[in-house]
């Protein structure tokens, strides 16, 4: 397990630095915090890591209402009340009403897992702080049952953030940080080829040129990302668009450019 | 190791902590950096820097500390002893011969040779393996030179350095710096700060705490016991006053972004926006065009917009002195008998929390900007950047 080195997968093209950051995070036993523009494959990374190592992936999707406690365990008081009303057996056994959350599940697993805490910045500002001890010590205490859940195998923790909120310093100190740069055209080409091995050369070239041109338009509000390029190339292929018309007619450009202002800008500037 | 680097980083304003530093040492000890400066650069960055806004500072500190290594040519005596190994020489010769055979692919070959060489070094040389980073780099540098000895092949870490320094030199993270003038998304992020400090407001417990109630009821043998809790609501109310005078035209898209961001941040209890032309007088305009008639009385605002609104005034504070001090200095509308300065003082008196955001604020003291200096004395003024906006938001939330 110690000697495993992440080198990307067939479906996931990772830059050298990204691979290094995964391996270093594993070696130093620290959570890996991934930031980057939307659509640069932050979430995909965890899937790729899990796949490369043949481990189970546990995804904890964070929403604005998520509380740290939910990741550890939930005490189903309602069920207990309900059972209590009807005199069910075992109401006094609180353990029956404790359900482990995603983090708890990862700790409690019999084999090492990859734990993805997706979009941690969506949650309340105190959220990451509430997880400090748990991520550091890889254990937590269930008050109701006086049980300590300790990680049997330290999970590989990958955390993604869209930088919607600043994360607390105390939390950041404990992480390995990597910022996914927007892929260079060369890397992008490789990524596209992974998705469409048989893509036509001219189509790819023209689409890529247009795509990068759009990204360089100065006032563009939402820069298109990798996933949008992939969708676009897919649309172009399905639509049977000939490569020569891509630059002049911008077919299906709505797949790449999502905002009205940007659409106008793109048509006006004529990429 | 590299304690100077640590200090340089801190001097550049990166808050590297001892804990992170020790983690880096651990990484070095366990050989995670290999023996290349480039790898060290990335490892150090991913451990020590936690935000892409700080990458640029890190790059500059790195350059300052390791510039010397780029040109390092001296080979220490001990290093020479380590390098003086027959199999190493053989390897180099072998690679050199290989290289000569495939002279067409000179570029790829070079890299290949270097790669193998480095690999071999790592595998064979215990001093090197267990050794520290410095030795690693020095070793690599000298190999670069040694490479010259064995058949003219430049084997070695030279490229490694160059790539680390090409990253540093390109300063491609400059755009992420905190002190850059910001865009819409970053505005929104900053405005979220106003929520950060408002969740613990002193409000009555008006919400039914279902879990607490159920739990208490269970413990109470099924007899209902109600538990109340504080609602988690944002009580921040915002009053935005924006300058849309002529001197602000260069910043129009920036202000547009700011405006959008405020309105997308739908977590405020209330947001009111008014516009003014150069300075605030007895009328505030409802639209940025500042057309006569399309306005409200500033005094009406005082009466109707409570003093617990947090006020953000956005403007370049570049009024002519008479616009600020003269009773008749306003050429766009009525003055109400007071100078602009007096009106600003009224705002200061009415509202507890006021900040001024200025897109072109002079750094430090700027006595030649008369109006700006005068307004700075009235309101805390911040430059309209990520940093400035964040500071302003904090200022709005803290008690005095």
Written overview of the protein:
The complex is a heterodimer of chains A (271) and B (400). Chain A is α/β, with parallel strands linked by helices. Helix content of chain A is 42%, strand content 15%. Chain A has helices spanning 16-28, 42-53, 68-72, 77-85, 102-108, 127-130, 132-137, 169-172, 185-195, 201-216, 226-238, 245-249, 260-269; strands at 32-36, 56-61, 73-75, 98-100, 113-118, 139-142, 147-150, 156-161, 176-180. In chain A, the strands form 3 sheets. Chain A has a 5-stranded parallel beta sheet, sandwiched between helices. Chain B has helices spanning 3-11, 18-29, 37-48, 55-70, 77-83, 86-101, 106-124, 126-130, 133-149, 158-170, 184-196, 210-219, 252-264, 298-304, 321-325, 340-350, 370-378, 386-397, and strands at 207-208, 228-229, 237-243, 270-276, 283-285, 295-297, 310-314, 353-358, 381-383. In chain B, helix 17 (370-378) links the parallel strand 8 and strand 9 (381-383). Chain B starts with a helix and ends with a helix. Mean pLDDT of chain B is 70; it is low at 71-93, 103-110 and 124-163. Classes of the chains: A alpha/beta (271), B alpha/beta (400). The A-B interface holds A 17, 20-21, 23-24, 27-28, 30, 33, 35, 75, 77-78, 80-81, 84-85, 124-125, 163-167, 169, 172-173, 175-179, 219, 221 and B 15, 17, 19-20, 23, 26-27, 30, 32, 39, 42-43, 45-47, 49-52, 55, 184, 188-189, 192-193, 195-196, 199, 211, 214-215, 217-218, 222, 253.
Report strand order across the widest sheet of chain B: 4-3-7-8-9
Helicity range of chain A = 40-55%
Biggest β-sheet strands, sense, barrel of chain A: 5 strands, parallel
Quick one: which chains have the greatest interface?
A-B, 34 and 35 residues
What shape does the CA trace of chain B take? flat
What oligomeric arrangement do these chains adopt? heterodimer
The amount of beta strand of chain A, in percent, is 15-25%
Structural class of chain B: alpha/beta
DSSP strand tally of chain A: 9
- Top-tier CATH class of the largest domain in chain A: Alpha Beta
CATH superfamily of the largest domain in chain A, by name, is P-loop containing nucleotide triphosphate hydrolases
Distance between the termini of chain A: 49 Å
Mean pLDDT of chain A: 85
Helix content of chain B: 40-55%
Q: Structural class of the helices, strands and pairings of chain A?
A: alpha/beta
Would you report the number of β strands of chain B?
Answer: 9
User: What order do the helices and strands of chain B follow?
Assistant: HHHHHHHHHHHEHEEHEEEHEHHEHEH
The number of distinct structural domains of chain A comes to 2
Helix tally of chain A equals 13
Report the total helices of chain B: 18
């Amino acid at each position: 397990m110690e000697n495993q080195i992440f080198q990307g997968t067939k479906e996931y093209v990772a830059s050298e630095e990204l691979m290094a950051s995964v391996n270093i995070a594993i070696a130093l036993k620290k959570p890996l915090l991934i930031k980057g523009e939307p659509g640069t494959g932050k979430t995909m990374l965890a899937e790729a890591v899990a796949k490369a190592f043949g481990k189970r992936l546990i995804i904890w999707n964070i929403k604005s209402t998520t509380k740290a406690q939910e990741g550890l365990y939930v005490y189903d008081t309602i069920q207990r009340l309900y059972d209590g009303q009807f005199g069910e057996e075992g109401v006094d056994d609180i353990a029956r009403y404790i359900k482990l959350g995603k983090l708890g599940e990862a700790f409690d697993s019999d084999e090492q897992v990859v734990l993805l805490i997706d979009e941690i910045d969506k949650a309340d500002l105190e959220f990451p702080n509430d997880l400090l001890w748990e991520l550091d010590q890889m254990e937590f205490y269930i008050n109701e049952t006086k049980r300590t859940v300790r990680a049997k195998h330290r999970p590989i923790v990958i955390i993604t953030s869209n930088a919607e909120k600043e994360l607390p310093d105390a939390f950041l100190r404990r992480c390995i940080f990597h910022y996914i740069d927007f892929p260079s055209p060369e890397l992008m080409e490789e990524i596209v080829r992974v998705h469409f091995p048989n893509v036509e050369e001219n189509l790819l070239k023209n689409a890529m040129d247009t795509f990068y041109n759009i990204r360089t338009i100065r006032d563009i509000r939402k820069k298109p990302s990798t996933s949008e390029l992939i969708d676009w190339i897919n649309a172009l292929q399905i639509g049977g668009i000939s490569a020569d018309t891509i630059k002049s007619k911008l077919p299906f450009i709505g797949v790449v450019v999502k905002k009205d202002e940007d659409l106008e800008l793109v048509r006006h500037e004529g990429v | 190791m590299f304690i100077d680097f640590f200090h340089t980083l801190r001097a550049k304003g990166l808050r590297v902590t001892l804990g992170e530093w020790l983690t880096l040492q651990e990484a070095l000890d366990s050989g995670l950096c290999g023996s290349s400066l480039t790898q060290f650069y990335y490892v150090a960055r991913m451990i020590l820097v936690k935000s892409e806004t700080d990458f640029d500072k890190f790059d500059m500190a790195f350059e300052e500390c390791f510039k010397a290594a780029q040109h390092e040519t001296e080979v220490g005596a001990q290093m020479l002893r380590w390098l003086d190994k027959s199999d190493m020489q053989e390897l180099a010769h072998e690679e050199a011969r290989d290289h000569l055979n495939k002279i067409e692919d000179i570029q790829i070959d070079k890299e290949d040779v270097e790669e193998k060489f480095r690999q071999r070094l790592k595998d064979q040389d215990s001093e090197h393996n267990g050794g520290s980073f410095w030795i690693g780099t020095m070793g690599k540098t000298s190999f670069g030179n040694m490479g010259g000895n064995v058949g003219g092949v430049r084997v070695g870490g030279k490229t490694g350095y160059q790539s680390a320094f090409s990253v540093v030199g390109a300063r491609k993270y400059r755009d992420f710096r905190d002190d850059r003038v910001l865009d819409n998304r970053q505005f929104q992020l900053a405005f979220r700060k106003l929520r950060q400090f408002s969740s613990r407001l002193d409000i009555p417990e008006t919400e039914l705490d279902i879990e607490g109630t159920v739990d208490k009821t269970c413990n109470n043998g099924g007899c209902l016991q109600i538990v109340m809790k504080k609602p988690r609501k944002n009580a921040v109310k915002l009053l935005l006053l924006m300058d849309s005078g002529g001197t602000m035209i260069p910043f129009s898209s920036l202000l547009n972004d700011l405006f959008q961001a405020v309105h997308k941040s739908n977590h405020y209890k209330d947001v009111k926006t008014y516009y003014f032309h150069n300075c605030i007088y007895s009328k505030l305009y409802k639209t940025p065009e500042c057309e006569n008639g399309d306005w409200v009385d500033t005094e009406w605002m005082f009466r109707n917009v409570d003093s617990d609104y947090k006020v953000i005034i956005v403007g370049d504070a570049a009024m002519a002195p008479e616009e600020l001090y003269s009773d008749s200095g306003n050429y766009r509308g009525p003055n109400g008998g007071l100078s602009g300065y007096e009106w600003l003082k009224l705002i200061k008196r009415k509202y507890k929390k006021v900040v001024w955001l200025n897109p072109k604020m002079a750094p430090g003291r700027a006595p030649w900007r008369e109006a700006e200096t005068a307004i700075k004395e009235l309101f805390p003024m911040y430059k309209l950047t990520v940093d400035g906006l964040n500071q302003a938001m904090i200022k709005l939330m803290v008690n005095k």
